Amino acid sequence: MQNTATHQEQFIVSVGTAGAQEVDTSTMRAGIEHGINIARNEGMLTPLADESTEIGAIRVAAPVSPSAALLLMLESVIADTPAARRAVEMAVASIVRQHARDRVVILTDDEREHLITGVIETRKAWQSSGEDDWIGDVVQHGYDGYAAEPDIGLIENAFCDQPVFRHLPDDASRLAVLRILAKPAVLDVICSDERNQPVHDLEEFDQEVNRAVGPMTAAGRRSRPEDTLEALQLHGLILQQLQDRLGSQEADEEGDVAETPRG
Q: How far apart are the first and last CA of the chain?
């Protein structure tokens, strides 16, 4: 007589609620069991007249975090210990960071390097204490970690949170950053209300951009004529695209002011 090992499958049903206190596990378990029985009777889970598949125990839990849910799912193969919980939490945090929903590819590797360099130089300007090599390590791999940050996060920091225009070291860096800023996808990011500090004030932001354009166009400059021309062209392109994005917002604000009753 040949014994055949029973192959078991696990299924996870994800239910979103306003909070763990909103979950009645007894009612939910009963509802899931009822739904499974209907599905089985209708032949949705197994072929009609096939009684060889048995539904095992159904458990309903309300994990407080993704790491807790993963630990619950793996409980048959890993120990539930403080060390295991820490390992799972670190793994989940790494996955979320590396594969965030907003990890949209906008920048090339070279463009990322230019922005990271700008962030480092900006950070050094106000955080330097003599020996400042550590700042670059922190920006790239430390608590900031922009070497692994999604493009959107890097763009937001470089242009919204702490604009990098003032401390770019040379014309090549200035042109590189202006070319990045002129990309429509980049302007869409920095003008989005989803950012912590989106660009809303065109005049104020243009003053920041001028910190990169000014050194290449001011009297006594040493920039190559072709670089000066490109900087001016990029500046004009950036302003035009910003006006296209922000113009409707400014018009709405002006309309609100015009409709405000006067006392």
A: 97
Assign 57 to helix, strand or coil: coil
- What are the tokens at 47? 């072929």
Task: Please list the alpha-helical segments (H only) found in the chain.
Answer: 25-41, 66-73, 82-98, 109-127, 133-141, 151-156, 171-181, 184-190, 202-217, 225-259
- Report how far residue 109's alpha carbon sits from residue 180's, in angstroms, rounded to the nearest whole number: 12
- Helix, strand and coil percent figures for the chain, each rounded to 5: 60, 0, 40
Q: For residues 103 and 95, what is the distance between their CA atoms, to the nearest angstrom? A: 12
What is the rounded (10 degree) CA torsion for 107, 113, 115, 118? -170
How is residue 19 written in tokens? Answer: 């909070």
Most confident among 3-12, 86-95, 113-122, 201-210 (mean pLDDT):
201-210
Rounded alpha-carbon distances, angstroms, from residue 125 to 136, 154, 168: 12, 19, 11
> How crowded is residue 132: how many other Cβ atoms within 10 Å of its Cβ?
13
State how far the alpha carbon of 226 is from the alpha carbons of 183, 213, 231, 237, 259, in Å: 20, 13, 9, 16, 48
CA 173 – CA 117 distance, rounded (Å):
9
pLDDT tens string 37-96: 787 677 676 666 666 666 666 667 777 788 888 888 888 888 889 898 888 888 888 777
Q: 146 near 116, Cβ under 8 Å?
A: yes
Q: What is the DSSP letter of 1?
A: -
DSSP annotation of 167: G
Residue 208, class by beta-carbon neighbours within 10 Å (0-12 exposed, 13-18 middle, 19+ buried)?
middle
> Which of 58, 57, 86, 55 has the alpha carbon at shortest distance from 70?
86
Q: What's this model's pTM, rounded to 2 decimal places?
A: 0.55
Q: If you ran DSSP here, which 8-state letter would residue 6 be given?
A: P
